[in-house]
Amino acid sequence: MAELDQLYGRIISCVRCPRLVAHRRWAAENPPRRFRGEVYWARPLTGFGDVRARLLVVGLAPAAHGGNRTGRMFTGDSSGNTLMRALYHTGFASQPYSERRDDSLTITDAYITAVVRCPPPENRPTSTEIANCIPYLLEEMRILENVQVIICLGGLAFNTVSKIMREHGEMGGFRPAFKHGATYRPGGKLFGRPAPTIIASYHPSRQNTQTGRLTQRMLNQIFLKARKIIEQPAG
Ligand code: SF4
Q1: What does the pLDDT average to over 175-200?
Q2: By alpha-carbon position, which residue is closest to atom 6 of ligand 1?
């Protein structure tokens, strides 16, 4: 799609955040032992998936040695594999893992993106970095015209998507609160189309999965909920 290709060109060449530009390069030059010898992507990441998607998945940011290494969102780390198992379980992904850009993964009816496109130190982007990067997510949300459901992975994704919907849609005082599993149907319009339903989920970070805050079953349930909503007959 030409509009998305143009957007991707702008994203990949972006250097708006000096701290994150430095960090993505630093990570490439200082890989952990297991990745020594690999050529890192070390540039911003675009979203990826099915441009006709009815489901949009929004995460936080690429990991320094995950997406920043492999060049694809949620690819090459444990978060990506947890997410992909849930997508596979619910029929959105062709395989239950996401390891490399050339690993033959096909995403159907879903599109995966993030609020911030370069890896932040400690996974904590500053408010300025978030504000710098939001226009790219906004553009993706505008271009992906079939989206009916947005799964927000983590509080930052949830708050950012809610803010975009509030500021660019017609849906009154839409101020939902983040709670894992909560579903919000704002009604009204976004970009002239029916506003999507949003579902809040904990992020499938290693910290959340290792502590049991988010289990694979819990994440699968989130995607099953999305699947049910998009398969509901219209009207
Ligand atoms: S985080 Fe976003 S705005 Fe900042 S440099 Fe990367 S792509 Fe650009």
Answers
A1: 95
A2: 118
